[in-house]
Amino acid sequence: MKDIQYEIVKEIAILSTSDSGYTKEINLISWNGKEPKYDIRSFSPNREKCGKGITLTEKEAGNLLASLKKELTQ
């Protein structure tokens, strides 16, 4: 199985913290040396493990932002 490498290029925000210390974060992450994407996922304390998440291109992140602004102002 191929090792997955990631580099957090920019820390944007911690969205929540669970009782176990896991954090749900949004960051700009480069996966396997590729172009960085916006990434939402959970991390264990000290970022030793990460959970399943979602990656978004800049355009997708913009679409998500516009959709959430519309939804949350209704």
UniProtKB/TrEMBL annotation:
<dbReference type="InterPro" id="IPR003173">
    <property type="entry name" value="PC4_C"/>
</dbReference>
<dbReference type="GO" id="GO:0003677">
    <property type="term" value="F:DNA binding"/>
</dbReference>
<dbReference type="GO" id="GO:0006355">
    <property type="term" value="P:regulation of DNA-templated transcription"/>
</dbReference>
<dbReference type="Pfam" id="PF02229">
    <property type="entry name" value="PC4"/>
</dbReference>
<protein>
    <recommendedName>
        <fullName>Transcriptional coactivator p15 (PC4) C-terminal domain-containing protein</fullName>
    </recommendedName>
</protein>
<feature type="domain" description="Transcriptional coactivator p15 (PC4) C-terminal">
    <location>
        <begin position="21"/>
        <end position="66"/>
    </location>
</feature>
